[in-house]
Amino acid sequence: MQVVTIEVPSLGNRCHLVHDGRRALVVDPPRDLALVERAAEAAEVDIAVVADTHVHNDYVSGALGLARRHGADYLLSADERVEFERVGVRDGDEVPVGRLCVEVHATPGHTRHHQAFLVREGMQPAALLTGGSLLHGTVGRTDLVDPRLTRELARQQWRSARSLARLHPATTLHPTHGFGSFCAATSAPTSDPDRPVTLAEQLTANPVLTTPQETFVTGLVSGFGPVPAHYRHMAPLNRTGAGRALPRPARPLTAEAVTDTVLAGGWVVDLRDRSRFAEAHLPGSVSVEAGTQMATYVGWLVPWGAELVLVTDDAAALEPALRDLAAIGIEGVGTHLVDSARLTAAYRRTDWAGYRAALTREPDRPRVVVDVRQHDEWAGGHLPGAVHVPVQDVARHAATLPDGELWVHCRSGYRAAIAASLLHRHGRDVVLLDDAWDRVHELSIPVDGLAA
C-alpha cells in the first residue's frame, strides 16, 4: 500500500491518493482534478473510489467530478443531504479498493456527519485519512456549521479523536486540513509529507489526546480565529455538486471596461508584486499579490457575487490565479493586462528602519500606525499607540480611522499591502510598512503587549 500526498497550498490542504499498485482511493480532492490525475498517472494506477470525509466549508470539492470522469464510486456519509447520487456510507462499513480495505469511522465534530477512512492491506500498518477531525497537533475547528453547535461539536470532536487514538499506534495519520487552512482550530506544526506521522506520536503531542474533555472544549472554542467570508458559501455549493462542472471561463476586458468596473463600485484586483503596486497602479484597484494566499484573501474581502476583474502585466500569472479562485467557487471573472501609462496612482513604501528614521526626523508629524494582523498576533505584542484593525475589517473602518498619515503593517507585508491599497482606495494617505515584524525587535523599536 502506498499513500501519495498531494499538496494544495492555495487551500492550505492536502489530498491523498492511496493505492495497491493498480487501483486507488482518492480522499478529499480539490476542484483542480489535474493535480490528482497527474499523481495517479505517475503512480500508474486507476482511480477506483473517491471519497469526501465531509461536506467541505473551505473549498469546492472535486470529488463528484473526479468520480464521474473515472467511473468511480463516490463515498460520502449517508446522512449528508446532497442533491446528487453518491454511495452513502456509515460507521463500520467496509469498501474494497483492489487489495485494499477501506473502513469507515464516524468522526463527528468538524461537521455533524464527518467520517474518517482507515485503509488496510493485509498485515501492513494502516493509513488513517482523517479530513478535519484528528490533525497533526490539533483538530479541525467546530464553529463552521452553526455557532449554536460549536461547543457540542467540540465535545464530539474530542470523543472522535479519542476513538481514533485507540487504533494501532503504528497507524499513519493523513489529515486534509492543518497546513494553512482556516478549517484547522490552531496552526499545526509543519510536517514533511514524505515522513508519515503516526498515531503514537499524537498520543503525547496533540492536546485533544492529553487534555480532559471540558478543559479541552473551553480552550478550543475560545481560541478560534476569524472565518473567511467565502466559507459560508462553500457547503451549499458542495451540496449541489457544483465542482462537477468546469469553471466558467474568464472574460478579457478593455481598459475602458476596467475603469467602468471601478466607477461602478466593482473590484479590480492587481496581482503584481506589492512593491510594484505601491510604485504605480490603476486608481481604485486593490493589491492582492499572486501566490498561495491570493484566493483566500480575494474570497474573504470581495463581496460574494461582486464584479471582479484581475489585472496584471504578466499573462502567465492569470491561469494559476483563475484556477485558485475557481477552487473556491469564484469564476467567470474579468481579466486585463495593464498598460503602464494608465498606472497613475501610487503611495509610499518603506521598512521598519524607515519607520524609525521617520520618527527621529519628524517626531511631531501626525502619523497613525495601523496594525492589520489578527487578534492573537496583536495580543502577542504591538506598537504603542497603534490602531488595531484586522485586514478583513479595514475597508469597513477606513473612514473612521484617525486623521493623519496611516502607516500600515502586518507580520510580513502581504496583508499590509492589501490593507494599504484598500485604505488608499478610500482616499486615505498611506505608507506601506513592507517588512517582517521580527525586525521591530531587532531594531529595538518599543513594543507593548505580552511579547515582542
Structural topology:
Blueprint: E1 2-8, E2 13-19, E3 23-27, H1 33-43, E4 46-51, H2 63-70, E5 73-77, E6 87-89, E7 94-97, E8 100-106, E9 115-120, E10 127-131, H3 150-165, E11 172-175, E12 197-198, H4 199-205, H5 213-222, H6 231-239, E13 251-252, H7 255-263, E14 267-270, H8 274-279, E15 286-287, H9 294-301, E16 308-312, H10 318-326, E17 334-337, E18 348-350, H11 352-361, E19 367-371, H12 375-379, E20 387-388, H13 394-397, E21 405-409, H14 414-425, E22 430-433, H15 438-442
Parallel strand pairs: 3-4, 4-5, 5-6, 10-11, 13-17, 14-15, 14-16, 16-17, 18-22, 19-20, 19-21, 21-22
Antiparallel strand pairs: 1-2, 2-3, 7-8, 8-9, 9-10, 11-12
How does this structure look, described?
This protein has 452 residues and is of the alpha/beta class. The chain has three domains: 2-239, Metallo-beta-lactamase, Chain A (4-Layer Sandwich), CATH 3.60.15.10; 247-342, Oxidized Rhodanese, domain 1; 348-442, Rhodanese-like domain (Oxidized Rhodanese, domain 1), CATH 3.40.250. The chain is 29% helix and 21% strand. The protein has helices at residues 33-43, 63-70, 150-165, 199-205, 213-222, 231-239, 255-263, 274-279, 294-301, 318-326, 352-361, 375-379, 394-397, 414-425, 438-442; strands at 2-8, 13-19, 23-27, 46-51, 73-77, 87-89, 94-97, 100-106, 115-120, 127-131, 172-175, 197-198, 251-252, 267-270, 286-287, 308-312, 334-337, 348-350, 367-371, 387-388, 405-409, 430-433. The protein has a six-stranded mixed β-sheet with strand order 1-2-3-4-5-6, with helices on one face. The chain has a six-stranded mixed β-sheet with strand order 7-8-9-10-11-12. The longest helix is centred in the middle third of the chain and has 16 residues, at 150-165.
